[in-house]
Amino acid sequence: MEDCLFCKIIKGEIPCDKVYEDDKVLSFKDINPEAPVHVLTVPKKHISSTNDLKAEDEELVGYIYTVMVKIAKQLGISEKGYRIISNCGEDAGQTVSHIHFHLLGGGKLD
Ligand code: AMP
Ligand code: ZN
């Protein structure tokens, strides 16, 4: 989608610090980390938020979780724990309208 920051990152128009990529998803370091490990995972398909998920996306969301768990293991934070969150809408503080999942860890979280 035009004018979507994360679609531009997916297309390579805006650089990112890539952690993982395949045909379905891209994971990259958050530009403004809120924890020692802060990685965002986005589907390559543009979906604006969790409100816009369709039944056909069920497998994709499950897949994103398995990718994030693998990243947590690779980055060595899975033993001590981590948090996966997705903000939806204004009240939750969603600032980019392309669904994304935050992986936070590497230290005690607030
Ligand atoms: P949210 O507030 O849940 O919508 O999360 C959006 C996240 O995207 C924030 O944590 C931002 O720091 C992050 N972000 C914004 N622009 C970039 C970028 N160019 N590269 C990496 N992360 C970004
Ligand atoms: Zn997008």
From TrEMBL:
- Catalytic site: H100
Listed CDD domains: PKCI_related
Asked if the Swiss-Prot or TrEMBL record annotates the protein with the keyword Cell membrane, the reply is: no
Q: Which residues form the HIT domain?
A: 5-110
Check the record and name the InterPro entries matching this protein: Histidine_triad_CS, Histidine_triad_HIT, HIT-like, HIT-like_sf
Q: Where is this motif: Histidine triad motif?
A: 98-102
**What keywords are assigned to this protein?**
Hydrolase
SUPFAM superfamilies in alphabetical order: HIT-like
Q: Does the keyword Membrane apply?
A: no
Query: Per UniProt, what is one GO molecular function of this protein?
Result: hydrolase activity
Q: Which PROSITE patterns match?
A: HIT_1, HIT_2
Q: Which PANTHER family match?
A: HISTIDINE TRIAD HIT PROTEIN
Identification of the protein by name: HIT family hydrolase, diadenosine tetraphosphate hydrolase
